[in-house]
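User: Fold this; tokens only.

Assistant: Input:
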Amino acid sequence: MRLDKFLCAATQLTRRDAHRCIKNGLVAVDGQVVQDPGLQIESERVTLDDEVIRLPEPVYLMLHKPAGYVCANTDGLHPTVLDLLPRDLHPTEPLQIVGRLDLDTTGLLLLTTDGQWNHRVTAPNSRCDKVYWVELAEPITQESVSELEQGVLLRSEEKPTLPCQIEILTPNQVRIRLREGRYHQVKRMFAAVGNHVTQLHRVSIGSLTLDPSLQPGEFRHLTQDEVRSL
């Protein structure tokens, strides 16, 4: 990471102020004053005006997403999930949404400033299962379950979905476990067998299950064990 970028991330200085501090000899790396903003640093000890500065710890959040919020940083029509977070939560790095949910879909949503962790969770080869509770317009048939579990071809796609697991809860409610994350996948899967999803709620991602103490719109920080579990 460039020294000037490190200063901005660690102190919330503007890029111009960071350059000024470096040029004025206020910044030292491993005890040596450095005046090159482009110096690449990794694990060196950096001081600003003789005070050690460090990058902030990454942020990892679990949010109970309510309906009516979009998974985006900004949106001209609807409130975003970031609007649910308090104003005093200001990580220096932008929060990334880990696996988006549709406007009307509720349930477990993860947010983080750790881009590498985000990639590990959402990458196609991550083998990180997602579980959803689904309410359907029509009773589910065993024939449809068998077809969905084997994989169905979605409209405008060339490859069928990967095998999944479906548990029938009531005639119109099921729990589905799948590994992929295609666009509107759950809704499109049930549409492919002639049904329609009326409610969709994400229960878990990998080993993480939505905290039952979180009401819609509430969030909490993940524990280190939870972070490592993914």
